[in-house]
Amino acid sequence: MNLGEKLTEGKTKIVYAHPNDPTLAIIIHKDGISAGDGARRHIIPGKGALSGRTTANVFTMLNHAGVATHFVAAPEPTVMIVRRCVMIPLEVVNRRIATGSYIRRHPDVAEGTRFDPPLLEFFLKDDARHDPQISPEEIVAQGIASADEVEQLASESRRVFLLIEEAWAAQDIVLCDLKIEFGRDASGALVVADVIDNDSWRIWPGGMKERMLDKQVYRNMPVVTDDGLEQVRRLYEEVAHRTDAWVNR
User: Fold this and answer.
1) How far apart are CA 244 and CA 53, in angstroms?
2) Is the peptide bond before 19 cis (omega within 30 degrees of 0)?
């Protein structure tokens, strides 16, 4: 499809202006996968299409549930048309199960501890500083978002978490945690933006960590081999297939 000027490029996607509508943008999903703030990087042929399919399924479900998102359409597996936003440089994380970086930062908390309600954390998007955690007060003090917006980020991110948690629970899969991002649309309203795919969460079938289906499998590899990358691709394919059910029910 026709593309406008390139606006930005990250490790897993490229964002272009829409050639005909200044209120829209086009996201192209790439085949890259990375970990450790980009210290580990590989290409998995077909991953972009699988990530795009998962993201389109998630955003379609959220739109149908009345969540404000930037998603408009996905005309091709690797292509997503979205409302153009100014991104807020935060990762908003909700945690149901203590695992991953949380237990490294809180060694007194046992892995598998359940948070009810989900635990909310904010992280500043800054690869050079390894995305440091940031408090709501610091977010306001640094002018990243207003106090009212921080409350909205908290409430909307929890709403998104609970919707996705319910969808996974219907397949006997535990959503351990979820990382999402927000932007401001042309009117200044907050919307869920960026992507939500198999890089965005930890999911454990039957609540069993050893059966994980997500990007953590790639992170955990002591050495990355071609067979290992194919294993990751198959997991992403399974997750894309499973999320198809969220929009076909």
Assistant:
1) 8
2) no
